Amino acid sequence: MSISRIRLLAVAVVTVALSLVSSSAGAQGRLRGAIRFGGEYGGDKVLHFTYEDGSTPDVIAGGGLLLTAGGTLGVFARGAHSVDAQLNLGVKYRTIPPASNQEVTWLRFPLEGLLYYRTPVGIRLGAGATVHLRNVMEASGAVLNERVEFENKPGLLVQAEYVRKNVAFDLRYTAMKYELASGGSGTVDASSIGVGMTFFIGRSEPRTP
Fold first, then answer.
1. In the chain, what are the domain boundaries?
2. How far apart are CA 69 and CA 146, in angstroms?
3. Minimal CA–CA distance to 122: which of 85, 88, 80?
4. Cα R_g (the chain), whole angstroms
C-alpha cells in the first residue's frame, strides 16, 4: 500500500472516529479512561554505533517504549456486541545503551484515534490513525552531534486485544513513514509491531442479554 493511500485511509478513519465521539457523547455509552504502556520494534535503521567492547547498538525508526493516556467511549451496542471509539495521546521514547562518549534520544508524541469492534468473548479488534507530533531525534557525543526533525505525517494503526475486566493485553501494527523536515532529506520506514497492556479507569458499559 502506497504512503498516499495510507494517509488518506488514516485521515478518513480518524475523522469518522472523532465524529462518532462528538455525536454520541450524550446518547450512548459511558466514557472510560485508558492508560497504555507498550514496547514497539521495527522500521529502518537510522543510526548505527560500535562500542569499544565490540557491541553494535542500532537506532531504528519504529522502535521505542510507548506510554499513552486517553478515553474510550461506547458509540454503538447491540446485544453483547459493541463499537467503541478511542482517542489517546502519549509519548514514545528511544535511546541507546549508556555510553561515556555518546548519547542519542528520540522523543515523539503519538496522537491516536481508533474504532474498535468488541466481541462477547472479550476480544476487541480496532483500526485507526496515528500521527507522531514533535518528532525529534538528538545525538550528542564524540561520534555524532546532530538534531533531526521529522514532519507530522499520519499512519495506519491496527490492534487486537483481549480484555479482562479493567485490563487489556494487545498486539498492534503501525504502518508509517517519517519524512525528514531538517537534518537531511527523504523518508524512512517507521512501521512497527508492538505489544502492550492497557488499564481502563471506570466501569465498563453494561451489556444487554
1. 3-201
2. 31
3. 80
4. 19
pTM of structure: 0.79
Architecture (CATH level 2) of domain 3-201: Beta Barrel (2.40)
Phi, psi of 44 (to 5 degrees): -70, 150
Strand partners, 125: 117, 160
Report the alpha-carbon distance of residue 131 to residue 26 in Å, rounded. Answer: 28
Q: What is the pLDDT of residues 132-186, one digit of tens each?
A: 999 998 877 766 677 889 998 899 999 999 999 899 999 999 999 999 887 667 8
| Sign of the torsion formed by the C-alpha atoms of 187, 112, 21 and 171 | positive
Type of residue at 143: V
Query: Helix-strand-coil percent breakdown of the chain, rounded to 5?
Result: 10, 60, 30
201: left (phi over 0), alpha (psi -120 to 50) or beta: beta
- Give the type of residue at 37: F
Partners of 110 in the beta sheet? 132
Sequence-ordered list of residues with C-beta below 8 angstroms from that of 111, at least 6 positions apart, any chain:
87, 88, 89, 130, 131, 132, 133
